[in-house]
Amino acid sequence: MKKAAVFFGTGYEEIEALTVVDLLRRAGIEVVCVAINNEKSVTGSHNICVGMDAGIDEIDFDSFDILVCPGGMPGTKNLEACETLTKHLRAFYEAGKLIGAICAAPSIFGHMGILKDKKACIYPGMEAELTGAQVVYDKVVKADNVITSRGMGTAIAFGLEIVKNLLDEEAAQKLGEGIVYL
Asked: Is 103 among the catalytic positions?
């Protein structure tokens, strides 16, 4: 079974995080909601508190097939400030394993220098944060092992792209139809 880690920092964008969690679980992918502050619950940017499955210090990063960073503020800044997370994002990237970010969170990848010469997208107005990237304005884009998306309104497309890459096109299509998206 494929396995995904979705990282939650205080101030995350609730729809971006939870849409991914929901869609991946519907597709049969094991998802672990990970608190970067190791707390039992994390509050989002719109004051919605969600229970976590694990703290970042409790997980085995090697057991995951993808690491996912939702956006939101100050959630994105909190994720970027987490050295454990950025260390593992870099390791996944360098090993050719999938990493994904939506809304403001692709800025983390830009600041890390891993978008150089790759197509990437981000929340409107933040394009300068995609250091070295070829900025595109698609809902979601995959370049090598990096998946980026633009914001809350593209969360379903982002989640389906992750399903497609972890499982296959047919699974993503079936799920998209099942939720009346496609």
From this structure: yes
Domain count, the chain: 1
pLDDT at 138: 98
Residue 182 banded pLDDT, cuts 50, 70, 90? confident
Q: Which domain holds residue 35?
A: 3-173
In a domain, 110, yes or no: yes
Contact predicate 156/181, CB 8 Å: yes
Confirm whether pTM is higher than 0.85.
Answer: yes
CATH number of the domain to which 90 belongs: 3.40.50.880
Strand 146-149, strand 140-143: pairing: antiparallel
Output the DSSP codes for 34-97: EETT--SEEE-TTS-EEE-SEEGGG--GGG-SEEEE---TTHHHHHHH-HHHHHHHHHHHHHT-
Q: In this structure, what DSSP letter does residue 115 have? A: T
For the purposes of burial, counting CB atoms within 10 Å of the CB of 139, is it exposed (0-12), middle (13-18) or buried (19 or more)?
A: middle
Compute how many other C-beta atoms are within 10 angstroms of the C-beta atom of residue 49. 11
- Residue 105 identity (one-letter amino acid): A
pLDDT digits (tens, 9 = 90+) for 135-177: 999 999 999 999 999 999 999 999 999 999 999 999 999 999 9
Q: Which of 33, 82, 103, 121 is catalytic?
A: 103
Residue 38 has pLDDT above 90, yes or no: yes
